Amino acid sequence: MKRIHKLVLLWISVWMFSLSGCGGEAVPQEQESKAQEIVIWAWDDTFNIKAARMAAAEYQKENEDVQILIETKEREEILAQTQNILSAGLYENLPDIIMIEDYDVQQVLVLYEDEFVDLTDEIDYDKFADFKVKLCSRNGRMYGIPFDSGTAALFYRIDIIKKAGYTEADMQDLTWDEYMEIGRNVYAETGIPMLTLDPTDFPLVRLIMQSNGSWYVKQDGRTVDVQENEALKQSLEIYRELLSCNIGKSVNGWNEFISAFQKGEVATVLSGGWIISSIKENQEQAGLWRVAPIPIVAQNENAAAASNVGGSAWYILKNSRNSQAATEFMVSMFGENDEFTDRLISEIGIVPAVKNPSVFTNYEAEDPFFGNQQVTKLLTGMADEIQTVNYGSKTYEIEDILEEEFQEALIDGNLE
């Protein structure tokens, strides 16, 4: 690609970050005596925010003296504001708990490891999936509480595909070529596009690339792997073909993405399991949705019908006003409380990032919204097949460069 030199510079910057750190003066301990108000920053009202509100309501039944303020902020906003506060040493303005996406966390820990509560001895991390534990750690210490796994799946409207003559069986074990062929026929019969496409955002590229066991960086997490990355090239080629074969609905940003499937303007959604809560927002579509494994890249010998999109964990700021109370709350509700996690499976459709989900009674529950499929069990089975990659610390920075290059490639027809 034309701007490989930018990625080389980015590779150098990753090494620079690994040698840097930030600190500041801690909030005086007397501030801990202030009213026990725990402040949480997270995103997604139907999923993360809803889970935090449920946890707060449950916790306050036995801890009436603790007030919990939950604020909705965008992912980028949380990172920017937290980093600005830490850099300025304005600890009195810190939230107590923030949610960080798995793609971002290593960069944050490289810069601010000393600013987070060390949870190594607070939680039994053996119960969590190994890849999530690795993401939440640095230098052998644990700083995050794993939340959702981000297991990717193909969510589709059975009523729409049936109009084109397809059945549930036809949506199993798909290749991307087969998926696109179904999309063409669905569009021809119904006028409904197969999926949303946003050329300025690359979750689908990430989904396809990880399904082939690859990422933007090599397994060391530092060496940029773009120029000779066959899985990345295949992902971009599939994305370009999806655009050119006229089965995608163009959207710009999160709100348009959500609106499209909630309004029935697309036949499928390819995303992480966390999207279930947004799908279920439109109860008029109950019974019309189904879940299947993602398509595979037939031309890639490493291809698997499993991948990951997003996923996140909770982190506690060590020098916030009420970090101790925040730690007690988070460990109690999200670190040790299997009964509460079981409720989250039922109410927001979470796929817990644990090794043994069978401990949850709702694990095998049938979901009427999805035609009585055992959705959590299906997604957990897919999670077992996800290939582990090292996300490194610069996913979105690399994508900013690639997205610009991709726009040019769409014009001149050259992905090299």
List keywords for this structure.
alpha/beta, 12% strand, five-stranded mixed beta sheet, 416 residues, D-Maltodextrin-Binding Protein, domain 2, 15 helices, three-stranded antiparallel beta sheet, disordered N terminus
> Could you name the CATH homologous superfamily of the largest domain?
Periplasmic binding protein-like II
The helix/strand class is alpha/beta
Level-1 CATH class name of the largest domain: Alpha Beta
What's the helix count? Answer: 15
Beta-strand fraction estimate: 5-15%
* Computed Rg: 22 Å
The SSE string, one letter per element, is HEHEHEHHEEEEHHEHHEHEHEEHHHH
- The count of domains is 2
- Major sheet size, sense and barrel closure: 5 strands, mixed
Low-confidence stretches: 1-33
Average pLDDT, all residues: 91
Instruction: Give me the count of strands.
Output: 12
- Percent in helix: 25-40%
What's the N-to-C terminus distance? 5 Å
CATH architecture of the largest domain: 3-Layer(aba) Sandwich
CATH topology of the largest domain: D-Maltodextrin-Binding Protein, domain 2
* Shape by Cα distribution: globular
What strand order characterises the main sheet? 2-1-3-12-6
Signal peptide: 1-20
InterPro entries: Bact_solute-bd_prot1 (IPR050490), SBP (IPR006059)
Organism: Candidatus Acetatifactor stercoripullorum
Protein name: Extracellular solute-binding protein
